[in-house]
Write a structure and sequence with these properties.
The protein is an all-alpha fold. The protein contains 10 helices and no strands.
């Protein structure tokens, strides 16, 4: 690897996140991470005792911070439509800001659910879906959203939009800005692709 050796914890985590996202957690070895980091494998263990410790360091705060943010957005936006807009905007922005992390969580979710010590990932994501569901159901009950909506399917579609954007969006590209992606997806969710009535 060119340049000075990387030995800072955050740099190592960044490399681990990229490898986990690209080739999967189970297929990535501590030796690979050390090699990509420009350090000896033994030196890696000064920072992390196990690969699981590394994964916890990457995802725990990200995952566990989600429910409080969504609850704050509910408090800030009393109207269900405004709340869903805020939810979608937040989901897209974190997906695009933390592409590697989100891609890794999406791909590894089933494996993590069965892995000792990682139950909090699935539990927290279920909690997030429950928060979304409550807002959509409130909107349906208030007549803000269509009564024939299946809120479970709607949630999956909206979260999938954010997740898929994380796969193709490149923040260093000048083709689309982050704001353009967010506004386009919000327009699609709320207005579809039909021409607006004049």
């Amino acid at each position: 690897m060119d340049g000075a050796p990387i030995n800072r914890r955050d740099d190592i985590l960044g490399i681990a996140a990229r490898l986990f996202a690209e080739q999967g957690f189970d297929r990535t070895t501590m030796r690979q991470i050390a090699s990509e980091s420009g350090i000896q494998a033994a030196s890696l263990y000064h920072h992390f005792a196990t690969k699981d410790d590394m994964l916890h360091a990457l995802i725990r705060d990200f995952v566990e911070d989600l429910p409080p943010v969504y609850r704050r957005l509910i408090a800030e936006h009393r109207d269900p439509r405004a709340t869903v807009r805020a939810f979608v905007t937040f989901a897209l922005r974190i997906a695009l800001a933390d592409r590697l992390l989100l891609s890794m969580i999406i791909r590894e979710r089933k494996a993590l659910a069965a892995r000792p010590g990682f139950a909090y990932v699935d539990e927290t994501l279920r909690e997030v879906r429950g928060i979304w569901l409550g807002v959509l159901n409130d909107g349906i009950a208030a007549g803000v959203f269509r009564a024939d909506l299946n809120p479970h399917v709607v949630i999956r579609m909206m979260l999938d939009l954010a997740g898929s954007a994380a796969e193709w969006f490149r923040p260093d590209s000048t083709r689309y800005s982050l704001d353009e992606v967010v506004s386009t997806e919000l327009g699609f969710i709320f207005d579809g692709i039909n021409a607006r009535e004049r």
